[in-house]
Design brief:
The protein has 271 residues and is of the alpha/beta class. The protein is built from 9 helices and 7 strands. The protein has one domain: NAD(P)-binding Rossmann-like Domain (Rossmann fold, 3-Layer(aba) Sandwich), CATH 3.40.50. The protein has a 7-stranded parallel β-sheet with strand order 3-2-1-4-5-6-7, with helices on both faces. β1, α1 and β2 form a beta-alpha-beta unit. About 3% of the residues have low confidence. The structure holds NADP nicotinamide-adenine-dinucleotide phosphate (NAP). NADP nicotinamide-adenine-dinucleotide phosphate binds next to α1. Belongs to the short-chain dehydrogenases/reductases (SDR) family.
């Protein structure tokens, strides 16, 4: 997939207002992106998160501090696939402001887990794919339908920001279950962006490398960045109507090389 990919149709002016919905409502990367977008344009926020998450109170406080004009929480454990339709419907329609369109949806939930246990314990393999792939695609499809309905009803076109990973671009032995699970969601959102382009609903696929967040506590890697750096890149990518953004930017030329390395060389690289 080209890092220079842009949307096939010209950009439509983004709506003047509207709400922001964050699936993965406690995610460090998701919250940083939401903060950056609220800084430009304050509005109401809906956090979709596990109600028992100990991180929820702080997430809510961060949104208020960033300029959210109201914060509500929709409870969802994304492994409960049968609950998706109701949760997305609830998230996309704020009963306190039924006329308020949704401007931005961020999909930022995910699990990393232990890379070796992830393939040696089939229950963990399934759990990784349920969250990172099946739930992401299911929620993505439901969100797309809600944004299309908003558009058909005369409302503005919204946009979807899907947090994937550079690990999705070429699956590596060192974390192949995670990489494969993100590859599935990445391909889904790339295709969804192409399918929704005629309706001016934009999809931005974000591919960070290693980000210092709750997910990676205790781990180290090269080219590490903070969530704020991802957020800044997302804002710039939205401004320039990109379909894909890698963070840091050096991953665009690096992945162009790495994607095309023969297997016998790629498998010898120690990362
Ligand atoms: N950190 C990195 O190096 C990195 C790099 C590339 C891509 N990413 C991707 O970035 C996204 C955000 O990760 P992050 O770095 O911001 O880590 P994070 O702060 O740990 O965020 C992970 C989020 O996923 C949620 N989640 C996990 N399982 C869930 C479930 N069953 N139901 C509902 N929510 C669930 C967590 O909610 P709880 O509070 O309930 O646990 C949390 O909100 C993920 O998709 C990840 O794959 C991360």
């Amino acid at each position: 997939m080209s890092g220079q990919a842009r949307h096939a149709t010209g950009p439509e002016p983004t709506p003047a207002d509207g709400s922001l919905v964050l699936f993965g409502g406690t995610s460090d990367i998701g919250l940083a992106i939401a903060e950056a977008l609220l800084g430009d344009r304050p509005g109401p926020v809906t956090l979709v998160a596990r109600p028992q998450s100990p991180r929820l109170a702080r997430a809510r406080a961060r949104m208020v501090a960033a300029g959210a004009t109201g914060v509500r929480v929709v409870g969802l454990d994304v492994r409960d696939l049968d609950a998706h339709a109701d949760a997305v419907d609830h998230a996309m329609h704020d009963p306190r402001a039924p006329q308020e369109p949704v401007r931005t949806v961020i999909i930022a939930f995910g699990v990393l887990g232990d890379p070796e246990a992830a393939w040696q314990d089939p229950r963990r393999t399934r759990a990784m794919f349920t969250v990172n792939t099946t739930a992401a695609a299911s929620i993505g499809a439901l969100v797309a339908e809600a944004l299309r309905a908003q558009r058909r009803g005369g409302g503005p076109a919204g946009r979807i920001i899907a947090v994937s990973s550079v690990a999705a671009e070429r699956v590596r032995r060192s974390n192949f279950v995670y990489g494969a699970s993100k590859a599935g969601m990445d391909g889904f959102f790339i295709g969804l962006g192409q399918a929704l382009a005629p309706e001016h609903i934009r999809v931005l696929v974000v591919r960070p490398g290693f980000v210092r967040s709750a997910m990676t506590v205790g781990r180290r890697a090269g080219l590490a960045v903070d969530p704020d750096r991802v957020a800044g890149a997302v804002v710039r990518a939205l401004d320039t109507d990109r379909a894909v953004v890698r963070v840091p930017r050096i991953f665009t030329p690096l992945m162009a090389i790495y994607r095309n390395l023969p297997d016998r060389i790629a498998r010898r690289l120690a990362f």
